[in-house]
Design goal:
By secondary structure, the protein is mainly beta. The chain has a single domain, classed as Nucleic acid-binding proteins (OB fold (Dihydrolipoamide Acetyltransferase, E2P), Beta Barrel). Helices cover 13% and strands 49% of the residues.
Length: 135
């Protein structure tokens, strides 16, 4: 039986997406995202531990994401893990565990995404917005 290689997470984009093409012309976009974990600190309180992850998306979705996502975008990713290794020209070896995305879903509201693109503050909900909810 084969192993199951599947990951799903929500995250924030930490840098502008990088669009390029493979040698065969397939578009790909590289995303750098952060997934925050709540962990206990030495005093017993909770603190955020950032996990930075490289995500690659191939095909037509890559082009769409490169135009739509910006630094700070909140996304959900479904994909698989991909391990890679390399040797630099100086002979140093490196390795990385990345995510190859099958699906990327936008989690920002349109107003949040537009505000980030224009540099404006996102519109805030009225202070009494929950007062009209009937439950």
């Amino acid at each position: 039986m084969a192993d199951l290689n599947s990951v799903s997470f929500t995250a924030r984009v930490t840098m502008e997406p990088e669009l390029r093409n493979t040698r065969t012309g397939t578009p790909l976009v590289n995303l750098r995202v952060v997934i925050n974990d709540a962990v206990r600190d030495d005093d017993g309180g909770w603190t955020q531990k950032p996990n930075f992850v490289n995500v690659t998306v191939f095909g037509p979705n890559a082009e769409n994401l490169s135009r739509s996502l910006t630094k700070g975008s909140r996304i959900a990713v479904d994909g698989r893990l991909s391990w890679r290794e390399w040797t630099t020209d100086a002979g140093a070896k490196g390795q990385a565990l990345d995510v190859v995305a099958n699906n990327v879903h936008y989690l920002d509201t349109k107003a949040e995404a537009d505000a980030r693109r224009t540099g404006d503050a996102a519109p805030a909900a009225p202070a009494d917005a929950t007062e009209d909810i009937p439950f």
